[in-house]
Design a protein that fits this description.
Oligomer: single chain
Shape: globular
Length: 373
Amino acid sequence: MTLVRLEERRRALAQAMDAKGWPADSEWVRRAILDTVPRHHYAPDRLWTWNGRDAYVPVDLGREPDTWADLVYAGPNDSAITQILDGLPSSSLSCVSVVADMLDSLELQPGHRVLEVGTGAGWNAGLLAARAGAGQVTSVEVDPGLATAAERRLTAAGLDVDVHTGDGQAGWPAGTPYDRLIATYAVDIVPWTWIEQTRPGGIIVFPWGRLGTIALTVADDGKSATGWVHGLGTFMPSRGTDQGSDFGQIEGDGELEREAKADTDLEPLTGPDALFALRVSHPDIRITTEHGERGLTVRLHDGISSWATAVTDASGTTVAHEGGRRHLLTEVEAGLQHWGAHGSPSLFDFRMTVTSGTQYVWSGTAESGPYRL
């Protein structure tokens, strides 16, 4: 591996993030990511990349050092896959832009006690420790091998982080109460243990399902937590979660394939606001969009057996096909119409409230707003 290549890639990433914009209220995040806690110190010797066809393939530091460096310091929105299980990514160095935004949302201060669930390679734990201080960060990782490797990297970097092997859903009761809690894997249902283990007024930041990051503040009485959506982000789910089939697998089944009709403008799905609104109203529908030579292509699937593809050309004409028992395009159109009829709220208008027995996402008012999931 050439140090020159690493430095070139690090500078390119820094420039891309400078153009994109670092969190203005958390200057420490930029320093930590670029200088104090170098990302490549936490990357294993083997990374993985998609071969463009049908599988993830290894990229080894010893054999392909330049390619390895390119994966570590890719674009702001690119993660570096560090582990594959059963053919799917199971751990990664998260993309820098989302890491920076989540750390900003955490409002971390020196001296705060922090619980991280999902240690992974240890990089995020190192960033937390660089801010909170020695002995202030506890990190829990379900995979014993990942936990051991992360602890070794953190120790080598001189960062005092208490790493444990365990189920992040259960938190780590021995260190309570925490001032801050951050998850590096996605959950659909927020474990009540996270709120129980965070002090009143403390902040919990986590990825919500397949899309979105949320920051909750624990109520003064500790009986609930409420907060806002802070941005978009895609994270791997907790270990053992069935990720379902991808679009290509479902489309290839050919079950009940038919022409479909689209009467609604699908362009809003290319923006974060409508996309998040659909994530709330139709949580099991997965949506991807692409602008190309043919125009706008929208692909939908439910991870099980239903799919749809709609292509809108420059004249505004949409040609659509779908398969499976569900009419996903009709469902998405209904979601878009519902969103538009209630003022097209932005993703930052959505809030989440969690109690010991309930969890709901809402906009407008918690009691009667147009979205209540």
